[in-house]
Design a protein that fits this description.
- By secondary structure, the chain is of the alpha/beta class.
- It has one domain: TIM Barrel.
- The chain contains ten helices and eight strands.
- Strand 4, helix 5 and strand 5 form a beta-alpha-beta unit.
- The structure holds zinc ion.
- The site of zinc ion (ZN) has 5 residues, from loops.
């Protein structure tokens, strides 16, 4: 089995000491590729470094970008730095811009700033023809309005990116799928009574499903409450495969194929 953890925050300080063991356990679990996701300028830089220093048996790639929580910190200098990294993306092993988006649950940056910073980074991604990793929480109306506007301006590519850790409705999922997006699924699918996730999963085409751990967060059962890591992606895979009536091997082939198509690997 070849698995691809499409969203892992391995530059988080919780992996400082045992990062090599974490990557080795991922390899032993069948994970052959990991996308190091970023949320700040500082961890974007760290992800670029880690993606080349630790690239080995498990292939490492990264994304760069600023999360809505930190939108207030995003300035012209950040934008220039981000553009520079992306224009040299092959050397930097960058395959996506993100995570970017809107988060009205925590509102850690003012909403108008979140919107402006999301639009600015998304425009850069469109210009550079690189997929985006979108984080959206309790902001679907504003998110859809922005995406519709991008569509009208002719900026959206056929496959613009992924809605990471998708937690919205099946109805919104349909709209996103029509726009060309993929949806990422994480540990919460292993929690009891996650009816919403099943509704979404059974209503979208198989070629739109990505699996991701979002580690160190969102640890799946049976390790809920502990630090998450890429090796645990198998629990997410098995649960989704089981639900959709597929074998884990087939589900692995489908989701890894989807990830490689989206990130052009
Ligand atoms: Zn994340």
């Amino acid at each position: 089995m070849e698995l691809f953890d499409t969203h892992a925050h391995l530059c988080d300080e919780r992996y400082g000491e045992d990062i090599d063991e974490v990557i080795a356990r991922a390899r032993d679990a069948g994970v052959s590729r990991i996308l190091l996701a970023s949320a700040e300028m500082s961890d974007s830089e760290a992800a670029i470094r880690m993606a080349s220093e630790k690239n080995g048996d498990v292939e490492l790639f990264c994304s760069v970008g600023v999360h809505p929580h930190s939108a207030s910190d995003y300035d012209d200098q950040s934008h220039e730095l981000l553009s520079g990294w992306i224009s040299d993306r092959e050397k930097n092993r960058i395959v996506a811009l993100g995570e970017i988006g809107l988060d009205y649950h925590y509102d850690l940056s003012p909403r108008d700033v979140q919107k402006a910073v999301f639009i600015r980074q998304f425009e850069l991604a469109c210009r550079e023809e690189i997929p985006v990793i979108i984080h959206e929480r309790e902001a679907s109306a504003d998110m859809l309005a922005i995406l519709t506007d991008f569509g009208k301006r002719g900026l959206l590519s056929e496959t613009p990116g992924v809605f990471h850790c998708y937690s919205g409705s099946a109805q919104t999922a349909q709209i996103l799928v029509r726009m060309g997006f993929l949806l990422g699924f994480d540990g919460p699918v292993t929690f009891r009574n996650n009816k919403k996730a099943w509704e979404v999963l059974s209503s979208i085409p198989l070629d739109r499903i990505l699996i991701e751990t979002d580690c160190p967060y969102l640890t799946p059962e049976p390790f809920r409450g502990k630090r998450n890591e890429p090796a645990y992606i198998t629990y997410i895979l098995v649960k989704i495969a089981d639900y959709l009536g597929k074998s884990p091997e087939e589900m692995a082939r489908i989701t890894t194929g989807n990830a490689r198509r989206l990130f052009r690997i």
